[in-house]
């Protein structure tokens, strides 16, 4: 028997979730020698990811949305990198590294059909890159940046790209890909340190949206208007961007984190400009663009290895800190991709 | 000397324009035998069009938008069909029928370079179709329906199309093209007579948005959700449609007439659904899609001649009624494409 810490979804929050109330850390024991069902695997979690979309899963199961609600009083799940330590499934071998959607516990027995949500990725062992990279720049958030900017942003050299939440898991990669494509890249973030980091990354301009007038800052930093907006935050930022958008601008709606923890969504008053400026506002979910997976992995792995792009991570030690880690992301207290380190490879 | 009635833009309205205040009818005289400048033409107006976008031109000239502001105290202009009665320009011959943007007067001298806004269209004389058709179903509004639905709606057989202002100049054609493409077509309009007309046209369902709960009506008449929304009105209708839109729905923003005469635009609160349902919201201006002109004219002329599509017009006699005619359109008092008949061919 070994100790096994799990993260439980305990209660549906109405605004910001609270650690210990909506998410509860539970310690139990697991017998690693016990039989596991036919088709199941037993994995040891190495790193796990906390991402803003998880807030959307913390809802009443009767409300439909693009990703399923977390069942109450059960282990939460999300993107993980884990190692197989027992297998009763011919697709997995002991020692394999897996990536995908898995349970948030130190040790997890995954039965069929949920094993299909995990893919063997032994390249993670051999790449020489940190495991955590595969939850950020080379994982779901990185793919989101790549798909959103390239497929939906339809960038044209010389255009102005504006990115909100620009120092985050998705945003920092969006800006760097934009710069590679010859765009003028402008970003905003919620602290002066984050803004400094954006400038280090090569953003042409960056500002702290909490300490300036957004309308004025957009006018100043995007003197030729905005051609592509990579939307991560929503609310008044979206409205301001619509005001500053050029004719035929693309507003790629990746997320609207400012609206995730409120019951009173912020209004948008200037939708008429969608007509008068022929704007395109397009929402997307990264998992609907699997055709770009291969190009994404190839390109971003290369850029990382050559040092052409940088990627900041914000790693917290210990699975028991998962609830606070997720709350930090929702409150903007993360600086870079937030990852929970659970165990070494 | 003959009498020449003109329509003058007299004052910038803040809400609904008022005839005699913001638009003034002026009688003057014109010498049809007088010399006209090199490059100019003198035309006699046959029919003129009043269209919602003209409200946007009734603004202070310092405000930029996609179509230029009307200059104060000058003749208004818009789509006309007219006949050349004098020409000092090699591109035009006396007797030619012209179509395009021209002055709102019985007789108009158009100097260069404005003659470029008029095209010789002697096919109008020979087609056997009423002149007024060329300001509606075969003119700018018809082209708007064709481009908006086909190019931006990206229709797929079996999908549900919802059209607002569906009995109007644009809407009635949108619905009929949709039906031809195998869509389930649902429309709304502002009176029971208009709704009856939509059913006559072959709409699968139609409702009077003024007498029902919009959310409930959309649920009832679009039981499989909305895949394409042809947006003519904006405001709370847009918000309701976003609630009822299917994943990957296209919201084609043609106009938002409910917002043209107010200084307090209606808010949209549910933009987060653009992300969660991967919606595409796309504004367009018809004049940006000239590549579709030929196909539009060919298809719609054929459908009209074979009787496959019907098109209702609302014709008012006499240029002096132009201000009221435009106001009627803005207030929903028109029933079908509003045209002002000025003189016979
Ligand atoms: N569509 C998809 O498939 C998909 C996939 C992944 C992520 N996303 C979305 O992409 C966005 C970024 O995700 P991420 O993983 O890269 O997270 P992240 O940027 O690493 O972390 C979230 C950041 O959002 C900012 N933020 C939080 N509350 C805010 C508020 N009220 N107003 C403005 N900014 C606020 C904070 O940065 P500041 O300090 O700069 O405010 C915070 O650090 C989120 O909206 C997420 O839902 C979408
Ligand atoms: N993007 C482009 O290039 C382009 C080109 C042409 C037209 N348009 C737009 O297309 C739309 C329709 O134009 P149209 O020429 O076909 O006009 P129309 O439908 O013939 O006439 C306007 C109609 O709008 C409806 N309406 C008026 N006020 C309203 C309100 N407050 N709420 C809801 N509906 C209202 C009325 O019908 P009900 O009785 O049914 O309410 C009215 O009859 C307009 O928004 C126009 O600006 C855009």
UniProtKB/TrEMBL annotation, chains A, B:
<dbReference type="Pfam" id="PF16884">
    <property type="entry name" value="ADH_N_2"/>
</dbReference>
<feature type="domain" description="Enoyl reductase (ER)">
    <location>
        <begin position="56"/>
        <end position="340"/>
    </location>
</feature>
<dbReference type="InterPro" id="IPR045010">
    <property type="entry name" value="MDR_fam"/>
</dbReference>
<dbReference type="InterPro" id="IPR020843">
    <property type="entry name" value="ER"/>
</dbReference>
<dbReference type="InterPro" id="IPR013149">
    <property type="entry name" value="ADH-like_C"/>
</dbReference>
<keyword id="KW-0560">Oxidoreductase</keyword>
<dbReference type="InterPro" id="IPR041694">
    <property type="entry name" value="ADH_N_2"/>
</dbReference>
<dbReference type="Pfam" id="PF00107">
    <property type="entry name" value="ADH_zinc_N"/>
</dbReference>
<dbReference type="InterPro" id="IPR011032">
    <property type="entry name" value="GroES-like_sf"/>
</dbReference>
<protein>
    <recommendedName>
        <fullName>Enoyl reductase (ER) domain-containing protein</fullName>
    </recommendedName>
</protein>
<dbReference type="InterPro" id="IPR036291">
    <property type="entry name" value="NAD(P)-bd_dom_sf"/>
</dbReference>
